[in-house]
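MODEL INPUT / OUTPUT PAIR
PAIR INDEX: 1
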Amino acid sequence: MHGHDGIVPRRNSDAFRAAAASSTWAVLGLMRSLAHELGPDGVRVNAILVGAGRSRIQDKGSSAIPYDPELDDAAALALFLCSPAARNLTGQAVRIHGLVPSFSVPP
């Protein structure tokens, strides 16, 4: 039916999925651009993507660890990414969600 198409969210979270996805991709694009721009000066730029936990995204993959991500997990990763041990990591998006994705979408 031409002219009568519409979008009806199935759950409350569906209503903002497009906005969340587009803003996430914008931040990832900025992160990668900054990694290219600042890399020659020795500045590394990475992103930490903290998931919502298995209960909200369990249909996206299978559980690999028995607990949901916490702020301490992100803090530990941030410390690692800022350390000399991560000197060769830049322009990367690292996911913390405890799941093994059923498919991979490049960040």
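PAIR INDEX: 2
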Amino acid sequence: MKIRKGFVSNSSSSSFVIIGAHFNCDEVDKLIESLCKKADVKYEEFDQCEMLETACSLDYEWMNDGLVVGDRVAYGDDLIELTIIDIQSAVDKVKQKFKEYKIEKEVKLISGEGEC
């Protein structure tokens, strides 16, 4: 029997680290509608991903139980090195965006595997 140690991935998922917040499936539509209203665009003009990227300059990852939104600080299995200052800068950026778009979620460091 062979035992694999370490990160395992396949083509349908990719690992990530985002400084931001998790929104469950029930919260996603409300979030997108709120962002559209603040950005003064019609909900129908953008799909959800375009809205986050284009109008709000926020990164995102879809997961099976919802959406993670914020600042992506790592993606895939690349080695990353972040200083505390880098992390604090990302936290500040996300907090400012959340405040601007009236997103009332605690900012956290979230890692996981997103669906591609």
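PAIR 2 NOTE: The CA atoms of residues 51 and 57 lie 9 Å apart.
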